[in-house]
């Protein structure tokens, strides 16, 4: 473990000076629910005194907030104190606006960003004398938020493109060549997907269920190319979670105003989840394959022998055709160019189906319980210990419900779906295959469909045999009441699919709000630590 050298007695405390990555690792190891490390042992491991470790743990909230405040992590191992921008609130609002433009696929350039920065400053009451939005400021801002990779416009003699930065790939063959130089055990992908975590196919007390649940989180998933190593699931949501409950929360939770995985939030996942996870298991080079078309993945996130590489430009010609259970196939597929995102090849769908099965099971456990059990649950709820609410108590699902059930569902995704997801996505280099690469066969795609059908059938059986009152059967997703339970379950399972009209309408409304909304903020006093 490398630490920065400093002579003992040459400054506050003793021992080497800790950098940001080391502080984050200390926090992660001390919080670990499986094997928490003592302060004394951490002091030994990092070559510092216990007082230093105690200070790091006490300041964990500030350290994690600082780590997530910037998408630029490439030099984190050399950073001991991060300089702060002069107007952090302005930059945060501007970065959110840029993220929304990218999600809307609207052209953007540095001059547009500078003009918008001046507008935001005026709305915040910052005078032009205090904030000039110069090209020098823009250069520092773009580095802080990793924005240069998203801009394709050359202005003022500066090229703001990510070409040549070692992350973009122009073809599947180029990506395969890069992947072939790494041990398959240490090649990872990352995926994000939305989930309406409080949606149920029937109504419950508290206004939830009935398909009317619209509280959304973004799930962040990652696995290696063998499918045998999976990272703990992470949730991104807009709801605030009490600081004191963070250590006992079942999954990593990151808060973002619109539950988006933007650059700072992706940086938070990368630094607090991905880097510690892989570095606890290997010192070998690690490759993380990301989707360069996702705005949040555009920042600089490479350090300590971990390389990020973008998927090549998407191929639009291939389409999945499902014309009956015996004719599931891919058409117009050229294995030299076609690829897909690995976890979208059945894994995300399986996870959502497992989660929804567990959620329905939890909600029905209360509705089907004898009256004396319901009274005991109500008495426990009235004591208010903080964990007595949600679906198991007859109410709308909570964020804690989502965390618990997602962690369980992630562990129950079928191994054969995970282990073959890179192969089904055509992202295994030919040199690592025993035979010539082929597109996913009917049997592989059928496996995905059979799992989905199996979960749907189990949910249907639970609903048919339940004690649901008649008034609980309401319409789903703003539609009229389904004609039967099978239709209702089908709508329920697809409510937050990538192609769901309900999900897309919500996201598009949020994008429009972010693009057109004004910044409502009190006059901002500048920070004096670093003028930019």
Question: How would you describe this structure to a colleague?
Answer:
The chain has helices spanning 20-31, 39-46, 50-58, 60-68, 88-103, 110-123, 135-145, 172-180, 263-279, 347-367, 371-383, 399-411, 415-419, 421-424, 442-464, 485-494, 501-516, and strands spanning 154-155, 158-159, 187-196, 216-224, 234-237, 252-255, 286-290, 306-310, 319-322, 328-331. By secondary structure, the protein is of the alpha/beta class. It folds into two domains: 20-78; 172-507, no CATH class. The strands form three sheets. It has a six-stranded mixed beta sheet with strand order 6-5-4-3-7-8, covered by helices on one side. A two-stranded antiparallel sheet has the order 1-2. A hairpin with a 5-residue loop joins strand 9 and strand 10. The longest helix is centred in the C-terminal third of the chain and has 23 residues, at 442-464. The radius of gyration is 25 Å and the shape is globular. The model is unreliable at 1-13, 149-164, 317-329, 477-482, 518-526 and 528-532 (pLDDT under 50).
Short description:
The chain is α/β, with parallel strands linked by helices.
Strand content: 5-15%
Read across the widest sheet, the strand sequence of neighbours is 6-5-4-3-7-8
Q: What is the β-strand count?
A: 10
SSE order in H/E notation? HHHHHHHEEHEEEEHEEEEHHHHHHHH
Q: How big is the Rg?
A: 25 Å
Report the total helices: 17
* Low-pLDDT stretches: 1-13, 149-164, 317-329, 477-482, 518-526, 528-532
What percentage of residues falls in helices of 4 or more residues?
Answer: 25-40%
Class from secondary-structure proportions: alpha/beta
The N- to C-terminal Cα distance equals 34 Å
Give the overall shape, derived from the CA principal axes.
globular
Mean pLDDT: 79
Q: State the major sheet.
A: 6 strands, mixed
Number of domains: 2
């Amino acid at each position: 473990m490398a630490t920065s050298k400093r002579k003992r007695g040459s400054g506050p405390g003793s021992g080497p000076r800790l950098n940001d990555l080391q502080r984050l690792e200390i926090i992660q190891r001390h919080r670990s629910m499986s094997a928490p490390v003592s302060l004394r042992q951490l002091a030994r491991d990092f070559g510092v005194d216990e007082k230093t470790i105690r200070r790091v743990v006490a300041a964990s909230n500030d350290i994690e907030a600082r780590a997530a405040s910037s998408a630029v992590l490439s030099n984190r191992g050399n950073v001991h104190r991060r300089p702060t921008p002069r107007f952090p609130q302005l930059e945060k609002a501007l970065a959110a606006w840029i993220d929304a433009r990218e999600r809307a696929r609207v052209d953007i350039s540095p001059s547009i960003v500078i003009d918008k920065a001046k507008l935001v400053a005026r709305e915040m009451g910052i005078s032009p004398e205090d904030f000039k939005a110069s090209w020098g400021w823009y250069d520092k801002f773009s580095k802080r938020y990793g924005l240069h990779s998203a801009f394709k416009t050359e202005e003022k003699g500066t090229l703001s493109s990510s070409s040549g930065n070692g992350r973009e790939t122009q073809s599947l063959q180029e990506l395969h060549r890069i992947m072939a130089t790494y041990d398959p055990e240490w090649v990872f992908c990352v995926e994000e997907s939305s989930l309406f975590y409080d949606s149920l196919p029937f109504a419950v007390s508290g206004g939830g269920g009935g398909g009317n649940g619209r509280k959304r989180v973004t799930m962040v998933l990652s696995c290696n190319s063998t499918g045998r190593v999976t990272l703990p699931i992470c949730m991104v949501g807009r709801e605030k979670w009490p600081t004191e409950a963070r250590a006992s929360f079942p999954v990593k939770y990151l808060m973002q105003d619109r539950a988006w995985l933007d650059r700072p939030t992706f940086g938070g996942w990368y630094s607090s989840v991905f880097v510690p996870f892989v570095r606890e298991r290997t010192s070998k080079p690690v490759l993380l394959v990301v989707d360069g078309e996702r705005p949040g993945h555009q920042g600089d996130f490479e350090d300590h022998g971990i390389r990020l590489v973008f998927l090549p430009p998407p191929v639009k010609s291939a389409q999945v055709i499902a014309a009956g259970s015996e004719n599931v196939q891919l058409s117009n597929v050229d294995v030299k160019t076609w690829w897909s995102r690995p976890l979208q090849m059945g894994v995300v769908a399986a996870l959502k189906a497992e989660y929804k099965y567990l959620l329905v099971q939890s909600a029905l456990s209360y509705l089907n319980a004898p009256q004396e059990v319901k009274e005991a649950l109500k008495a426990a709820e009235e004591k208010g210990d903080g964990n007595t609410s949600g679906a198991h108590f007859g109410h709308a699902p909570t964020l804690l419900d989502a965390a618990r059930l997602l962690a369980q569902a992630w562990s129950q995704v079928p191994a054969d779906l995970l282990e073959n997801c890179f192969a089904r996505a055509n992202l295994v280099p030919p040199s690592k295959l025993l035979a010539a690469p082929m597109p996913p066969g009917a049997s592989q795609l059928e496996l995905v469909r059979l799992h989905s059908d199996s979960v749907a059938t189990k949910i249907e059986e639970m609903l048919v045999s339940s004690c649901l009152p008649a008034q609980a059967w309401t319409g789903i997703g703003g539609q009229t009441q389904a004609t039967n339970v099978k239709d209702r379950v089908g709508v329920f399972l697809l409510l937050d699919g990538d192609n769901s009209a309900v999900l897309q309408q919500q996201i598009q409304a949020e994008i429009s709000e972010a693009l057109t909304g004004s910044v409502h903020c009190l006059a901002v006093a500048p920070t004096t630590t670093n003028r930019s």
